[in-house]
């Protein structure tokens, strides 16, 4: 796979960091092969010390190569890294372009020694009539056959993997700073990478992060297996100044429209999204599901917790015919599940969304926000695991899970709609519902904030095994959204995960 819209979106964000400054002129000599720099000692401790020292100095934005502005999205696709220059058993480099104009340092580590990869235009091939390569913007790790890639780093602190089905989708970030605060969001960048091959399809990537408010040392251990890609991440952060909203383990995705809000789309395809919900497994063991929506205006949801067991943006709907996309293959997009390691304490999972009218804009961000905001001069460390796969880590036999959700006109179908209200419909599937019928004492527990619950019902869907439907008419206050919390129960026992859903008036 080649660079796609994920790099575009990340690079657009990075452009807002600071005014352009001149970059170093690229070297012109052409090597016969990859000639690495002289070996120098490298260690995780040394990288942390470097990040700490950097935090004591004023922030200097990454250099930008001005000439890269002439290499647009189509032109950068004509610049290819040469197969015979592949590094560390499978690493190939991305060239600079209009949407990724900031050179990064690449270093190959072996036996505790790091050797720099110098840039030479001959590392790439460029089609005749197009601009020549100007520098290195990032890197990707190739599959064993060399025909595809499964791991990529490019743009600010963004990285991603192709999951279990060889299809890129959502992205991760090293950090998020003041996301959702108007005009204040920062996009710190990985400026240097140290790459060590640790197996046939595994690498440890160390990265140096730098930004106006924070520096950081990152160790990212990545391994590709049959079920997807597993990553173990350690982030050690040093703060130059106070940060109001710190985002740890952020994920960035796209939700244009789904089966429940087709009116928001203008395309012939039934659904278009990289992820369809935010899943949470709280420290107390509660399972939460927040279906994604394309909101009419920016929204920020917070889910308070202490020591969360996991959270992530998932693509639960994996039926090709629900998308009918034979090019982007939204049914194959990876899930991204975050598992905190150690004591993360109090805080909240935050979900920021803003409206989009196309699939080319990532309009969803989810992250952990610690309760105690960091102050200038502080050091923080966060360890966590990232799992990129096609299976849902939150689905189990103990509780049914939500599979579909819709909103529409409130009131009886076919009758005059109830003014000032919307109907919410949620379907659950799970073996825990097997054998239960209308006489089994199953009810829906529904709570509404910033609105009123007008009617509700819960019943098994005829002809569909282990599938139950909840319907509710909701009257939001003003234009909403009303925040709805619902689950199925039998007596005092919850039978399903808890669904959290915003309801807007049209």
Automatic annotation (TrEMBL):
Location(s), subcellular: Periplasm
Keyword DNA-binding: no
This protein's GO CC annotations: outer membrane-bounded periplasmic space
Record has Signal as a keyword: yes
Alphabetical keyword list: Periplasm, Signal
Any one of the GO BP annotations: beta-glucan biosynthetic process
Signal peptide: 1-29
Pathway: Glycan metabolism; osmoregulated periplasmic glucan (OPG) biosynthesis
Gene Ontology molecular function: carbohydrate binding; catalytic activity
Top-level taxon of the source organism: Bacteria
Domain Glucan biosynthesis periplasmic MdoG C-terminal: 42-500
Entry's family note: Belongs to the OpgD/OpgG family.
PANTHER family to which the protein is assigned, alphabetical: GLUCANS BIOSYNTHESIS PROTEIN, GLUCANS BIOSYNTHESIS PROTEIN D
UniProt protein name: Glucan biosynthesis protein
Organism of this sequence: Sphingomonas sanguinis
Organism lineage string: Bacteria, Pseudomonadati, Pseudomonadota, Alphaproteobacteria, Sphingomonadales
